[in-house]
């Protein structure tokens, strides 16, 4: 199955290199339309005319990419993470001539309502794309990485007036095709960066495919600073073809009980909703206590059923637990339910640190998380030691609540549960 690898680590950036290109060679030779038809024939997916129309356009892009000469890119190395590398890279790349864009095909912006199959068709295309160096990443994660790399470039080059051009060249030196899931712009800092960053990426020959619930013209509208964002919208329209995927069928209907992941406030109604989610995820499994044994330690999970476990926040983060405990939990239970996450201040810095560690473990392992809380993720820990670092945790929690995370997380949970039963 073309998308099988997504089940193991959803939504993290992936780069296709010489090492794993051979495994995708069959799909790259057939193209997305042929693979889509095969999956219909085997009953893996249902025939959908609107999806087929979008896949036909992606198949056109697949043919255009196949006709392009392979562009030389620079593979990332462990040494590339240091500040010395960033300083050298900035100087080196700024002196390189721009890549020609004459033969670069137009990218694609796939827009449509929730549950119509946007992520599925883009992932199918990504698996078939005949490009050795390609990356598929959730847009929120991409922007988080962009902000971090801009910070690192400024730190490594104190005199640098504008770090965006060298960053764009560094990205273009690594990948030829970028696929973004759930393209959205909610932050003014992102809005101020995107226009110039994407302009430079397109100039350097990068092809972009994106999925979104929002028409390009409506991105970041009715917000302070929206007028300054309009040039970026013009760039999107100039460089990407917008195609609507509006199948009459919502393929997620019937699973709405598991679409809410973050319930505010943590009241009786939220508790009842988590009861239903826990029961649904447990299926026919019995609710019981489970003891995890690892590296000479034991961790008692009082409430567990099959692939899902449930905790009150204080029983999970109010105890002296560490990374190994949370990692063991993440690996044993693909689905985690947490009740009563509080807002934390200066006196709860230890709680916040453990919560950060917990979310890192769940995020890196691709777990599904359902929780009730006193506030939205970005309002949980705004003051106190480590509150700056909590911004990354809030960003990860937002991504873990996205529809594509839930879709692929559900696949991972089912695969892990089936493997455990075998």
Automatic annotation (TrEMBL):
One of its GO terms (molecular function) is ATP hydrolysis activity. SUPFAM superfamilies: P-loop containing nucleoside triphosphate hydrolases. Keywords: ATP-binding, Cell cycle, Cell division, Nucleotide-binding. GO terms for cellular component: cytoplasm. Pfam families: AFG1_ATPase. GO terms for biological process: cell division. This is Cell division protein ZapE. The lineage of its organism: Bacteria, Pseudomonadati, Pseudomonadota, Alphaproteobacteria, Acetobacterales.
